[in-house]
Each structure stands twice: as C-alpha cells, then as structure tokens.
Amino acid sequence: MNTEQKVAKALLKIGAVGFMPDNPITFKSGIVSPIYIDNRKLPFHPNEWQIIIQSFAEIIKREKIKLDVIAGVEAAGIPHSAALGFLLKIPSVFVRKKAKDHGTKRMVEGGSVLNKNVLLIEDLVTTGDSSLRAVENLRKEGAKVKNCLVIVSYDFPEARDAFSKAKVKLHHISSFPTIFDEVKKLGMIRGDKLKKVENWFKEHTK
C-alpha cells in the first residue's frame, strides 16, 4: 500500500469523505461538487492524524525540501502545520485570509518569515486560489515560498497551472482519484450515485 492509499483509507475510516450527488455543495471557488472532504476531523482521531503528519514529514525528506519555517493557511491548515513543526522541531506560523481590523493587522502570525524558506501547509486544494493568496502574503513579508504540501488535491488542471505560474511546487499526500478508487473498492457508493460522481470528475479534469 502506497502513501496515497494509506492516507485515503485513513480519511475514509474517520468519515472525512462525504458523497452527496443529489445535494451537492458549492466550494468557495464556485465549483459545485458532489463530494465533500472534511480534514478538520483529523485532530479528533489522533491515530489517523499521525498518518497524515508522518506522510508530510516523509515527503519533505524524500523531496529534500529546504525549509526554515512551516506556515499553515488559516484556518484548516493551522493544526497540521503546527503538528508538523512540533514533530520536526521547526518554527511554524500561520497566514491569515485577511488582516484583522484591530491590533497589528499582520497577515502572518507567529514570527518573522523575512528571507526564510517557508513551506506552506494546506488541508485541501481545489483550484488553489486560497493557497496561492497565502503564498502571495508570505512573499510580501519577504518569505521564499517554493513548495506547498496538501493533504488532498482534487488534481484539477487549473490548480496545476496556477501553482506552476506562481513557481510553487504542489505536493499532495493523497488525491481525489485515489480516494475515489478506494471508495469504489469498498462499494461505498453504487449505481446512479457512482455514475454522477464519475461524470462530475471527468467534466472537471478535461
């Protein structure tokens, strides 16, 4: 079993993946989706969460990613970036989606990222918009951001293109195609519902 399959099984085990082909949800990007992946459940399930954090650490080692600071995207990326920083004994910060109206009005909280190699941690990537806004905000603070680690990528072509244009390498530890393969093996959805999800994915990966 490879890492992607192991992570997919962990997410399915804790009920982090939901299929709603008859009542789809709308992502912030505007994409209407019959699938919902809720990685916010992970900290409640420490055994499965450990699989995720350890998989991040393995990618860093395998890809020889140079880093001085780990940054989590507010809010869903923060638990994972903090846990990874704790495991690796590397400083961690988080990136706000928008500055507070009061106080210091910082976009990056926790410490200075000036001239630091910063690794961005995200829980989920669809189009990549929120992740790349975080990259932009880190770079405005003087950070060098060349890599982003994500738990699950939907593997949409527009996301790959956007990260490439931003000169950021996107690494995932699992992907929607891998999760969906596991779902089919387990027979979690069948018939018309299965067909609807398959058609949706084909439509968004043309």
From TrEMBL:
> Per UniProt, where does orotate bind?
T126
Molecular function terms in GO for this entry? magnesium ion binding; orotate phosphoribosyltransferase activity
Binding residues annotated for 5-phospho-alpha-D-ribose 1-diphosphate, in chain numbering: K28, R96, K97, K100, H102, E122, D123, L124, V125, T126, T127, G128, D129, S130
Write down the EC number.
2.4.2.10
Q: Does the keyword Magnesium apply?
A: yes
Catalyses: orotidine 5'-phosphate + diphosphate = orotate + 5-phospho-alpha-D-ribose 1-diphosphate
Q: What class of enzyme is it?
A: transferase
Swiss-Prot/TrEMBL keywords: Glycosyltransferase, Magnesium, Pyrimidine biosynthesis, Transferase
GO biological processes = 'de novo' UMP biosynthetic process; pyrimidine nucleobase biosynthetic process
Q: What are the TM regions of this chain, as residue ranges? A: none
Q: In which pathway does it act?
A: Pyrimidine metabolism; UMP biosynthesis via de novo pathway; UMP from orotate: step 1/2
Q: Which cofactor does it need?
A: Mg(2+)
List the InterPro entries hit by this protein, alphabetically.
OPRT (IPR023031), Or_phspho_trans_dom (IPR004467), PRTase-like (IPR029057), PRTase_dom (IPR000836)
Q: Which Pfam families match?
A: Pribosyltran
All residue ranges annotated as the Phosphoribosyltransferase domain in the record? 47-162
Q: Summarize subunit and interaction data from the UniProt record for this chain.
A: Homodimer.
> Which family does the record assign?
Belongs to the purine/pyrimidine phosphoribosyltransferase family. PyrE subfamily.
Biological function: Catalyzes the transfer of a ribosyl phosphate group from 5-phosphoribose 1-diphosphate to orotate, leading to the formation of orotidine monophosphate (OMP).
Q: What is this protein called?
A: Orotate phosphoribosyltransferase
Q: What is the lineage of its organism?
A: Bacteria, Candidatus Nomuraibacteriota
